[in-house]
Amino acid sequence: MATQLPFKISVLVFVRNAQGEQLLIQRTKSPNLGCWSPIGGKLDMSSGESPYECARRETEEEIRLQIDDSDLHCFGYISEKSYEGAGHWLMFLFDCKKPLPHLPATIDEGHFSFFKRALIDELPIPETDRTLLWPYYDRYREGFVGLRADCDPSGQLSITEELQIEP
Known about the structure:
CATH topology: Nucleoside Triphosphate Pyrophosphohydrolase
Number of domains: 1
Shape: globular
CATH architecture: Alpha-Beta Complex
Largest sheet: 6 strands, mixed
């Protein structure tokens, strides 16, 4: 019998400043300890929180930016099977259209910095982000993409594009 892994639902919110630089947090907690990534977090499933509600809450909690649903564009989802062998994730991806006016203060989850998009691939980022997240952000952030990723514990990543809507 296969081992049962927990299933988590989360959001990632891509936020930029007025110059178009990406805001990333260098995480001090797992998953992705020490790596740079967009802000986000897990849905509060006990309250029936929607992905949009979660994206708004996490943006307010982590960077003190108040946004409305109209400030967000859901540009995709990624279903990751067996991420790091520890669980399954369903991540909703949001592009925030409201620019962040200043660098947020450090929080217990990590500290923030702005980066030009061209530099992000050179940062310590999760390996799956190099192949699974950023290339699809670049192509679909104004459209929509649905992805299924089988994260084999041996390091092999198999990606299936389930849905694509070009911008």
